[in-house]
Design brief:
The chain has 174 residues and is mainly α. It has a single domain, classed as Orthogonal Bundle (Transferase(Phosphotransferase), domain 1). The chain is built from 5 helices and 4 strands, in the order H-H-E-E-H-H-E-E-H. Strands 1-2 form a two-stranded antiparallel ribbon. The protein has a two-stranded antiparallel sheet with strand order 3-4. Helix 2 runs antiparallel to helix 4 and helix 4 packs across helix 5. The chain starts with 9 loop residues before the first helix and ends in a 12-residue tail after the last helix.
Length: 174
């Protein structure tokens, strides 16, 4: 059964707001963050990892109210823009766990608030030609895009923790 996606996906929201970076309302980003984490927590309780969290795999739907749905569980592409959302442990071909997905969610929320991919300053996220150079499990030639000053200190700190290269320093979903 195919469900109607009323408002597209997070990628479309980022494109819509891109001319006005930092203008996606923080409360909308927090709603998305909470919804994604709830969905992932449920999946992790069932021993499932998503393995391919991208803005294009998170859909905005409407029933009585707006809800987020995470799609494409376990469908892993090997080419394309998903490399921008890979955790350092995935780049190093290490086993993945829930902390890898925390990193991916941090990348997505950061991109929502800046309009740019977190580690690839000046790179067009809509081009399939962009591939980050990965050396020793680290994304090279990367500059973390700064969050707008309008983002609260608490959310800035949470995103900072989510994007830690060491997975043991990232927060858990709970």
């Amino acid at each position: 059964m195919v469900e109607k996606v009323h408002f597209g996906n997070i990628a479309k929201q980022i494109i819509y707001w891109k001319p006005k970076p930092g203008q996606i309302p923080e409360n909308f980003a927090l709603f998305c963050l909470e919804s994604i984490l709830r969905g992932l927590n449920f999946a992790h309780e069932q021993s499932h990892l998503h393995k391919n969290l991208l803005p294009s795999n998170i859909w905005l739907c409407k029933s009585d109210q707006m809800i987020l749905k995470i799609g494409q569980f376990g469908v892993k592409k090997t080419l394309g823009n998903n490399n921008f959302y890979r955790s350092p442990e995935e780049c190093a071909n290490l086993p993945l766990d829930s902390k890898s997905e925390i990193f991916q969610v941090g990348c997505i929320i950061h991109e929502m608030l800046t309009g740019k991919i977190v580690w690839m300053k000046g790179i067009d996220p809509q081009s399939d030609d962009n591939q980050p150079e990965i050396v020793d499990g680290r994304i090279q030639h990367s500059v973390q895009e700064k969050l707008p000053l309008t983002v609260s200190r608490n959310l800035r700190y949470l995103i900072y923790l989510m994007l830690q290269k060491d997975p043991t320093r990232r927060p858990s979903i709970k």
